[in-house]
Amino acid sequence: MSDFTKNHKDPTNRYAENISEMTKSVQGICAGNYSDDELRFVVFCIENLAEDMNVDPIIVHDALAKESDIVDQYMIPCYETLHTQGKEYIVENLKEVMAERGIVL
Fold first, then answer.
1. What is the DSSP-derived secondary structure letter of residue 55?
2. Helices (runs of H) and strands (runs of E) counted in the chain
3. Are 57 and 102 in contact (CB under 8 A)?
4. What is the reported pTM?
């Protein structure tokens, strides 16, 4: 369980209550057949970006997976390198990628 879901106290947060649905949604949106580790990494990124940006994780999910190609064209192809980095680096890196691609939350 991530820091976000473990420490989040708001019982109305639909993401904290529906993490498996988020994972299924990410899996359904991703173009390829990705491993469970890659999909968990995408969910980790989404929840930590949401926490850092103080935005609902569903909004971050939609921006990265539906409204842009960041999941399929950046996060998954760079998984081997990104997943070895710390949370702060990953969050800042993804915010830079979002800015480069014109994604504003």
1. -
2. 8, 0
3. no
4. 0.71
